[in-house]
Amino acid sequence: MDKRIQANLRVKESITNALFFLMQEKTLSEITVTEIIDRAKVARASFYRNYRSKLDVITVFISDILERFRNGREITSINYRSHQYVKKVLIYFRTYAQYLVDLYNANLISLVIDGVNAFQAALEGDALVSPYKKYSVSIYGGALFNMALEWARGGCAEPVEDMVDIFCREMKIEQ
Q: pTM, whole model, 2 decimals?
């Protein structure tokens, strides 16, 4: 990967981490761009080269997480209504559990829900022509997300396999 691209990815990661750190102390509206760049140790120009606003930092972060998951080799051939897929989702999102909790605590979790719904819809593709299918996909994605969020809020204390079993049992997904 090009060194400039790598450097910019580090800048974006620093900005994102700084914002989430500050969100543990203040609301998003109370946080200034100056505080973010000071904490991230980056230039103001770096912030505005990558983002339009503080909220944009969060939406780009969510989009990037979902895109990396979708592009992961291990899920491309898996039926998303399967035990294996649910396990992959939970293992992947456990990495981002604290971010989910921070967004929940900041009353910004709807941004993640919107991203998850769009992600699930993209998995279905053209199959979303019927209202029934659209709602079915929304129910499934919402249920999986809400369970993952509650698990994250509890510190991901239960083993992944237990969470997968609970979800698959409730959604009537056979192994």
A: 0.86
